[in-house]
Amino acid sequence: MTMEHSGLLLSLAAILLGAKLAEGLSRRLGLPPVLGEVIFGVLVGPSVLHWVAPSEPITLLGNLGVVLLLFVAGLETRPAELREVGRAALLTAVGGVALPFALGYGVGRWLGLETLPSLFVGTILTATSVSISAETLRSMGRLRTRAGTTVMGAAIVDDVLGLLILAAVAATGQSGGLLFPLARVAGFAVVGVAVGLWILPHLMHLAHIHLSREALLALVVAVVLAYAWSVEELGGLAAITGAYLAGLLLGRTRFREQAAEGAQTLGYGLLVPIFLVWVGMQADVRALAVAPRVALAVTGVAVAGQLIGCYAGARVQLSHRESLWVGTAMISRGEVALVVAAAGRAAGLVDERIFSAAVAMTLVTTVITPLALRLLLPFTTRGVPDTSHALGSPDGSGVPPAMARPASVVTASGAA
Predict the structure, then answer these.
(1) Rounded alpha-carbon distances, angstroms, from residue 174 to 167, 169, 379
(2) What is the dihedral of CA 247, 249, 250, 256, to 10 degrees?
(3) For residue 99, how far is the Cα from the chain centroid?
(4) What is the Cα–Cα distance from 150 to 152, expressed in whole angstroms?
């Protein structure tokens, strides 16, 4: 074994051990467990102590972690519940895209940018990442409330709207710029849902008869990865949207419990902690000092725009408390915002001030979203029934009964 491989093994051991210790500390302090893991990543990453770098293998494992995280979230979402809040989810996504886009454009003009660069600033702010929020909601046992289901439904619509806005901005001055993205999304939606409804149940039934338990889990993971790949490469959307869709479709079959137990064990025992620490390692706290006024402005409108826009959309159907929860859960930005910012910088449309501000905004929103959800919990859930018991766990923790441990013990399978 080479020195490089040995170093990777040591890095993974440090990540897993540190993540679970940080999770346990967060629980004892009454904070969201996900927050401790992300902050641990910030501390050990290149931004502060530089003990562990987000190398290519760690990045790959982190990406697999978020795919399994959203797959489990899909398994825990009932299609009937998603249909029930469909209007709220649609309007939440529209509000959470339109208002941040408009405010981002305004910030760009305030900074003296031309029209197209200002539009790019607005596009950066439309990129929402609910992976952190989904895990926070799940760890609180709130994923299957009306608010939690609205957040997950809005994330799908938000992904589509963000793609269309990016295509429209990139195709400014060209004709037919939106036709191809729309065709890709529609084509994948038809094929992907058809396969999930009519082929996947029969495939799982045959596998259940002829394959071992471990082979069945391998098939489930293969299906999830295939959906994640196809929705990104064929549909033009984020891979996590495909994973969530796979969870929704597999959740309709009688193998839902088996798929959930295997995915939870693999995901929360190994891959999800790596993903959460990797998110922290990606952060660059030095970006806050590059252009603090610009960073403050971009972060401020990102938070306010998402909170107000999503709250207003959800309020059409949900209560004030539920809508406030939805608006807060949608604040977090992720790697998509950085990808858009990097593309704008490469095209000469985004200068170093805006790029650094986008990095700072991503860091701040990633950290404050789970904390804000925890702080709002006593005020937003009074009188709201909790129907969010996770698969295989009567207490909503996400841990199957066979794997349950006393609360004082920090376990690898305890959902972060």
Answers:
(1) 11, 10, 49
(2) 90
(3) 20
(4) 5
Low-confidence ranges of the chain (pLDDT < 50): 173, 175, 383-416
Structure tokens, 197: 């409804």
Burial of 326 (0-12, 13-18, 19+ CB in 10 A): buried
Read off the pLDDT of residues 94-107 as tens digits, 9 standing for 90 and up: 999 999 999 999 99
Q: Average pLDDT of the chain?
A: 83
Strands (E), 89-134: none
Class of CATH domain 18-383: mainly alpha
Distance CA 257, CA 263 (A): 10
pLDDT value of position 379: 64
Domain coordinates in residue numbering, the chain: 18-383
The model carries a pTM of 0.77
Q: What is the largest CA-CA distance in the chain?
A: 65
Rg (alpha carbons) of the chain, rounded to whole number = 21
H helix runs in 126-282, sequence order: 131-139, 146-170, 179-194, 200-210, 213-233, 239-250, 256-266, 272-282
What is the token pair recorded at 297?
């402005």
